[in-house]
Amino acid sequence: MGRKAPVLDLLKVMALMAVFGQGITGALLSGQPKVEWAVMLVLLTQALKFSAPFFIFAICIDLAEKSDADHQRHIRTKARHLLLPYAGWTVAYLLASVSMHAFAPLRIISALLLGTAAPHLWYVVMMFQFQLLAPACRRARLCVARGRGHTAVLLSFGFLTSLAYILLYRHFSPALPSWADLLFNRGFIGFMAFGCLGIAILAEEERGARWPAVIPPLAGLLVVPVFLLACREALPHGIAPSLHQVIYLKPSTFLYNVLLLAAAYGGARFCVLRGWGAGPAIRWLSSMAYKAFLANVFVSRLILWCLGLVNLEVTNLPSLLAVWLATAIGSFALAHAIDCLGKSMIYMNWRPERIRHDVHE
Fold first, then answer.
1. Sign of CA dihedral 74, 78, 81, 83
2. Which residue has the higher pLDDT, 175 or 320?
3. What angle do CA 321, 324, 326 make, to 5 degrees?
4. How far apart are CA 230 and CA 166, in angstroms?
5. From the centroid of its chain, how far is CA 126?
6. 197, 80, 72, 53: which is closest to 134 by C-alpha?
């Protein structure tokens, strides 16, 4: 990652913490809590519904910055670093499933291709599609570098395409079968605007354009009424609180994500320019983000299960925040342990003494 690494590290950590929170609220809502607490969980989930756009924004900037023209090597590397751990965790989540049909052939295929083994694994399916588009990201950056007119074209294309996709989904979603609904929600097109926005900002700043200081506070002010609109849509009158309307593919959530991303990006730049949030701790958290992301649902469910054994319930914000913090610590600890185990196994297999011993045998 290039010069924008510290800013993107902060955005990734923010997005990851949002993923942790969404996993916990989803688990709590599945237990049919009291209406007042269910409403609070739905609203909190809506507030945290920004993680995927933040990740896509950072990923596309990273892809656009790379000068590596060997696309096949890039895909092989990403498949090894992203898809192999994803497949391993998919198997782990299927093994942890209490369903008798967890290992039915169609269930396994669906879990691997669509990320249905756990609530968060669909992110990997959607985000890997952007890895396949790495050459397009680089070409878009070079095209935008030619002038501001190209920036407007790129942003118009990204935003209009994503909005058209979202409106198309909203129109047909009531009649869609479940498999089609899954495909729609995992398609990269609905998130294309955030990738285009990242590429445009990268190219503009490389040309020396300054990020207007008025944008972050203005976006922060506008995000409040948009968030309230999204919350109103998430809690339809006369319907029990649920997460059915807390989705990315609706216009209010899309606008909420655009404004929140503008505010967060400006805030992250402000922090980095003043030396805040650019230290080794944030860099380490960002480097372990994907591994902790894969582990977080396992950790949060284990914590909630342990609390249930001692008859402790998460029924208020302080207890929810405690579980959230414990999930974050546990996810990074488990990710670090797995990382150390993998490195030690590689060392044991490839250290010179072992190689010389094998040769003499």
1. negative
2. 320
3. 110
4. 15
5. 9
6. 72
